[in-house]
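Hey there, shall we discuss this one?
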Amino acid sequence: MTPSLQSQVSAEEWQTRVDLAAAYRLVAHFGWSDLVFTHLTAKVPGPAHHFLINPYGLMFDEITPSSLVKIDIDGNKVMDSPYPTNPAGFLIHSAIHAARDDAFCVMHTHSINGVAVSAQEGGLLPLSQQSIFVLGSLAYHDYEGVALLDDERPRLVADLGTANYLMLRNHGLLTVAADIPNAFLFMYLLEAACNIQIRAQSGGGALRPIPEPIVARGLEQARQVTLGAGGRLAWPGLLRTLDRLDPDWRQ
């Protein structure tokens, strides 16, 4: 159990830590984690370019607000922590955080069905209601090997552009948002769309794509469905789910 840092950080940072720890726990709960090898990051509120990332080696359902590691844009710790961080993991995140003012939170997964769809030439197909919420803001980035080389950053940023969803070819999924609840909702929709696509293809029958005029209305319809609240509509209920699963997760 990591000692609580609540008294050592601002109220705004503590809330960000709680929400990001919740996102890690929820990724584990929904089965999207890849042991300890993916990452969710969030900017620490304030003028400094500091970010929170997972303690490398902890399973996602072990992460607490106090165990999250605070680092700078280069991945260096700016607050004492007994835990290491994954230097390769932050390369992708740091490039996006630095390039996008709205990139408060960046989430990246290696889920089985997400990687499976990323390996398909056609990428995400318009086969489900979930997919139409994604396709209007989805970009692709070709695989260049494990993200270890700095020269991949500009290509990654250019491919992402202003999109909120990125499919990393042969690698996984990524979402970007101005807050943690929206980044999580985006990942939920992208993961669901990939799961549905793989199951539909596995059925062996002819697939029935959604017509383009309907797909084009997807983003606006998503806003209507969430009453304009986006991920914040579901977020309180998701936190209550975590409270039922482990009342001590907020430490």
In short: The first strand starts at residue 39 and ends at 43. The two ends are 9 Å apart (CA to CA).
